[in-house]
From TrEMBL:
GO terms for biological process: SOS response; translation. GO terms for molecular function: ATP binding; metal ion binding; ribosomal S6-glutamic acid ligase activity. One of its GO terms (cellular component) is cytoplasm. It comes from the Bacteria. This is Probable alpha-L-glutamate ligase.
Amino acid sequence: MEELVFGWEEWVALPDLGLPAIKAKVDTGARTSALHAHDIEVFGPAAKPKVRFNVHPIAGRDDIAITCSAPLVDRREVTSSNGESEQRFVISSTLTVADQQWPIEITLTNRAGMTSRMLLGRQALADHISISATERRLQPELSYDAYHDATVRRTAPKRALRIAVLSRENNYSTRRLVEVGEARGHVVEVIDTTRCYMAINAMAPEVHYDGKRLPRYDAVIPRIGASITPYGTAVIRQFETIGTYCVNGSAGITASRDKLHAHQVLASKKIGMPTTAFAASPKDTSNLMGLVGTAPLIVKLLESTQGKGVVLAETKKAAESVIDAFRGLKANFLVQDFVKEAAGEDIRCLVIAGKVVAAMKRTGADGDFRSNLHRGGSAKVVRISKEERETAVRAARAFGLGKAGVDLLRSESGPKVLEVNSSPGFEGIETATGKDIVGKLYDEIEARVKPQPVRRRKSG
């Protein structure tokens, strides 16, 4: 390597950690290098632990934080220049100066009181480096501008993420989320939503689980059952308060789960759906039916899932009987026009990050107008039209969902949205289409957790 001369302070980069520019104090009196880090947490398997931490690369700018993760090399007792000893986590990373790179060991510690965010010790100063202790910044200048423009996202490395899947079930979808995430080098932890509890305060909101505070996750993937929607969304709200990226937000899940609210959202965005009517206790059943049209009609319990609580009334008399029965149970229900031309088929579009990544046609079992796979329906891959694609994307966007199953009916007047599912399963659609849907979800998560440029402060 070409010989380098360092002054007592130099600009360096740590590309493995996503730090394109940082000022380092060169200290030949120190053996190990140190990096100013906070929120330091160990994660992953005991045999191959990783460490996740945040770095404020610019002194005095706590609003600029880069989240880093790296394999844990060691835990070491380090004595600082003032004689104080502390246990520090040790990582290995690539140091870049000028156009040269070499690996160094770095300890993680709180250097909040120091103007330089990093200290370069003897171990980092390779044989080809000499020190001119009275001078500073003899190597090429870098710039903090990298944290204020797209450079910070473009140069962000692929790092190991710590991801929580909120799920109470060990089913295909949950297992796939774990398998695919771990294959990409991430640590995926399945959390039983009902065992979470919350510390709600203004200064430090927290989520606790089995007696311990949950760590900071890079992302949360909610897979919350309909029966625990209110509590599940409260847990997600708590993660949102902390600032964790949630694939689906609490408001979108709440709105999509309430069939009446969901239809109101779709109507407000002028998204096509079967004509729908709802009333708490209409005096005249025929008035409610008249708002929708003539029989056959669909009568749906508002809390229904997977096709349960959905009845096809083929005649006016049958519809009146079903409505009276539901009302007698004091159940909330809505009445909907039956789209005959759909002929017991619907199209499930899986939307991730504003794109339809897969679509399948679901056909009901013999004699069943419902096409749910849980009820014995079958599925096969289908080509969808531009209008169907746009309708599915608009429906997912109306609820602010990063991941959604949008069910469409093909009607004579264009696609009609039957339902927007905020917790779609992956088994049916991956089997039917042969696509790695979960991998596409992780593509989006990895893109979303990259650092964002922070605006410059106006001087003066």
